[in-house]
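Side project, low priority. Logging it here so it doesn't get lost.
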Amino acid sequence: INDIEDSGYELDGLIRRATGTTEFLNGKITWCLWIDDDDLARASSIPALSKKIDAVKKYRTDGGDVARTLANRPHQFRFRNTAKVSQIVVPQVCIADAGYLPVDLVEPDTIVTHLANVMYDPELFNLSLISSRLHFSWATTLSGRHGNGLRYGSNLCWNTFPVPKLTATHKASLTACAEDILLAREAHFPATIADLYKPETMPENLRQAHQRNDETLERIYIGRCFKNDTERLEKLFELYTKMTV
């Protein structure tokens, strides 16, 4: 990217920040080309970009069945899903020793690659749900493993997660909890998500924000806090059974 930026050409609208699991957790800044069809002529007039587009075309032409179907648009990713307002990013693999999934809200113009899970333009209360101990218990039970870590899959963990009917009041309370979690993290900028969710160094204000979130959510489920993960899972599987009958 630096070489392209130093070329003197106008790159506005052709480059976006990109993130996968590693970049997301460790705060690593990476970039990608994001070229709309209307911008292809401009991008192709920039020698460094034209070279990259030609290289992708050759790679896809010489590739497998799926790659060859994309050879006619070498300036673009296979999937071009984007958000308008915000995105919740969930790592595919993480060491979740702190007892919570290290998820976050990111800007809509960030491109989330296939190496992370993402919700496009979700209502913010969803961050409360997926950040909860309740969802963590569900995910650790259903997900695969990666060494000592958790391999999170949206189809298996999120799409199956039983949630009772939420009223407008419930959603407002959970949204406030999500905001508190985000504000607690912001107080420790520039600490990375990976840093914040190490159990031995997790900031106390962030831990307390998660505990308030857990209490708020669990009272929606059973009117009180769950005693332990066993009780959490018993309730979740009870709801899941009803949901799938």
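Brief comment: The mean pLDDT is 93.
Revisit when time allows.
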